[in-house]
Structures are given as C-alpha cells and as structure tokens.
Design a protein that fits this description.
3 domains, globular, 14 strands, 15% strand, 5-stranded parallel β-sheet, single chain, 16 helices
Length: 384
Amino acid sequence: MATILVVDDEKSIRSTLKEILEYEGYTIEEAADGAEALKLLQEKHFDLAICDIKMPKVDGLECLEKSKSAGVGTPFIMLTAHGSIDTALEATKKGAFDFITKPPDLNRLMISVRNGLQQNQLQVQNQELQKKVLKVTSIVGESEPIRKVKEMIERVAPTEARVLVLGPNGSGKELVARSIHQLSERKNKPLVDVNCAAIPSELIESELFGHEKGAFTSAIKQRIGKFEQADGGTLFLDEIGDMSLSAQAKVLRALQEGKITRVGGDKDISVNVRVIAATNKDLKKEIEHGNFREDLYHRLSVIVIQVPSLNQRKDDVPLLVNTFLEKLAREYGYKKKTLEPAALKKLTQLDFSGNVRQLHNIVERLVIMCGEAITSEDVEVHAS
C-alpha cells in the first residue's frame, strides 16, 4: 500500500489526516515542519506528500521547491487556511500536484490523494520504460573508435552546446543524438526528430516552424512546428545536408535569436531548443558547391562527433550480434538463438557497406530462417 507523508505544524491536523488516511489503508508518516519533511523526503521514498503551506522554519512552498530541486519526484498536495488564487498559482508553478483549502472537504481530499498516487505510479512506470528504451537503444561497442564517441557524448551531453553528428548511413547517428539527450539536463523534456531528407523542400518550413490557417491552399488549420514541439527539449535535425537553402536561413535565425515565425504568420515565437544535427554528407564540400550555408555550419558545429563505420570497428561485431539476438528473441517470443564460432567469424569478415543497420538485418534474417544454432553455412546463404 502507498506511503504518504503528512506535513503540518498543527498536531491535531496531522492526527486527523493520519486517522482518515490509515482507515483507507495507507501507511502514514508525519513531519511537524518543512525542515523535518525535507530530511524525510531525502532519506525515504514516499508515494505522496500532503503539505501545509504556512509553517515555521521552512514553509510548504519552500519545502516543495527544495524537494523538486533535489530530484525528489514525490507529488505534493498543498494545504492552507489562507487560500488564494495567487498562492494556488505559485504552488502549481513550483510543481504542486494539487491545492486544497483548509479545512479540507474529505471527498475532495480523497479524490486528490487517489489522483496524486495514480500520477506517481505513472511517473514510476514511465521512468522504468525510459530505462528499458535507453538500454535497448544505447550505443553498443567497446572498440577504440566507439569508446571515443562515448567519451565525447558524456562530456558534451550536460552542456547546452550544439552538436553536429557525422557518419555514413546506418552507422548510429540517431543513437548518438538520443544518448546526448538522455544524458542532458533536458532529458525530461521532448526529443523531437525531423528527417530533412524525407520531407519535400516545399513542406520543410511548415514542418519545422508550423503554419497559420490559410497560409497556403491546404493549410485548413493552424499547425505547430517541430521547433515549438521541442521547446525546452532537444530538436534532432537528421540529414540536415538535404535541407533547402530557404529553410536553412530560417533555422539560422532560430539559432541566433531563439525565435521562429510560423509560415503565413507575422508573430515572433520564442523557443528554447537545443539542436543536434546529423548528416552523411561532407558539409564543407556542400558549402563550396553552394548547397549549404557556411554561417549555419558554424552555428551547428560547436562540437563535431564523427561516428565510425562498422568496417572501422569490426571488434564490436560480436557484441552487436549478441545484443541483436537478445532483442529479437524478446520481440519474436523466441528462445535466444546462438551462433557457432565459425558463423560469428564469417559474419565478422563481411563487408558492411550498410553499417550497423545492415548487420541488424542480417541477424534478423538468420533468426527467422535458421534453427536454434546458426551455422557458418547459414551465414553464407542468408547474409548476402
């Protein structure tokens, strides 16, 4: 059953709430002021906190703010005998789940408690899911080239620096971008990705910056673009070397001024976005040929990460194969298949022009088409 922390400087209030909540089956702990509550919140796990606002030493709002700053994810329901719209707004801005005036209506309080506990449960489930996703999509490899990439990611991720990720198709540029986001201060905000090569040039500006209703023939309603969707988080511009020059000019303005304008609009919209860009093209050559803006290149390339091809890190093939076998076994509901040593050796000797993506496809084909132990003959037949 859920554990709830009741924080109030009035012992009678704490005792009443404790009795009511324990009757509902919850486990209750008490704190007589904000300072005591902060200590408990940092030492123990609580599924919910019900906290008075007006208290000596550390008041409820300060307790809420300090607990959030310390990374405590416990939802707060704030109580006060001095209820006002301003106080409610301040509590909400500081991260309170709900706001109830004393003496609380018990039905209203119990509904808020149940909703707060449900939100906490969803947050825990979401965090676990994010961990699983991160584990599945993490960069696999221990070779020297990939170790250098991981070191760069760990160093640059906590900063706000823009990053340009270079590398051939299928080498894992998107994984680099996702790893940077997950290790950054923006990890709890959106990561929005745009494949610039997959969007027609006449639509890329609408995709990035949005449009107003009536901006063009098919604009039947307002559209929020990727920059606005990524506000507070990270925008990953994949294959940026394929972006039109007109869109490049607008991206440059967004990076310089932190503002965008929707297509067909005249209003500046402020956006707080960290941009990570990626391409398989040589942007310096594209600049020489007039296909890419030099000023945008310098804005994007504060940090440049070069992702090696799989042929440059063949030592990682066994680790990658094992990772793919585990992943595919989960996805297909199979028992994990094994590769005979000769089969793994033959796989390692292949030319991976399609990089990690090619290797994944080969392993998936082998899992589907072969028996529990994959042989070198299987690799010879299905790896082409």
